[in-house]
Design goal:
The structure is a single chain. Helices cover 28% and strands 36% of the residues. With 159 residues, it is α+β, with helices and mostly antiparallel strands. The chain has two domains: 2-40; 46-158, Rieske [2Fe-2S] iron-sulphur domain (Rieske Iron-sulfur Protein, 3-layer Sandwich). The longest helix has 39 residues, at 2-40. The protein is elongated.
Length: 159
């Protein structure tokens, strides 16, 4: 009986050892697939903070000139997360419309010119109106406008 028991144990061990590499390859393959999905999925590479960010107190936003505000946004690419400060312009004289401070042409930061009452992209001389509408230059579209809402006396934008 001992010989038969040894043969059964050897057969079970052989079966286990022949299945083990397939199991290990399955786990490695599943891990690589999950990693590839997380790093290539456009939903996760754009921004980790899908939601509303507070720009400021609505009572403090007033005047005829655009007001530059900074918000912190968490960006995610694959497994890495970074917190970036992003500038936006609030237009109190246009119902607190909020515009991106990035030129749609090649991503340069725009500035407000007090003298001309226009936004300027100093990289390639694109000009935008005080509402963010494209006036001249190589930019092909208006400045990006954020969706806004007022909640608990605070102006918020959707990022």
């Amino acid at each position: 009986m001992k010989k038969e028991e040894n043969e059964v144990i050897r057969a079970d061990r052989r079966t286990f050892l022949s299945i083990l590499p397939i199991g290990v390859l399955g786990v490695v393959g599943a891990s690589m697939t999950l990693a590839a999905k997380r790093s290539l999925d456009p939903e996760t590479t754009v921004a980790a903070d899908e939601g509303w960010k507070t720009v400021g107190d609505i009572a403090e936003i007033a005047g005829d000139e655009p007001i530059e505000k900074t918000i912190s946004v968490t960006c995610r690419s694959g497994w890495s997360k970074t917190v970036e400060d992003v500038s936006v312009y609030v237009l109190p004289h246009h119902d607190n419309k909020v515009l991106s401070s990035v030129c749609p042409h090649e991503g340069c930061p725009i500035v407000w010119e007090d003298e001309s009452k226009k936004f300027l992209c100093p990289c390639h001389d694109s000009y935008f109106s005080d509402k963010g509408e494209r006036l001249t230059g190589p930019a092909k579209r208006d400045l990006t406008e954020y969706e806004t809402r007022v909640e608990d006396g605070k102006l918020k934008i959707k990022v």
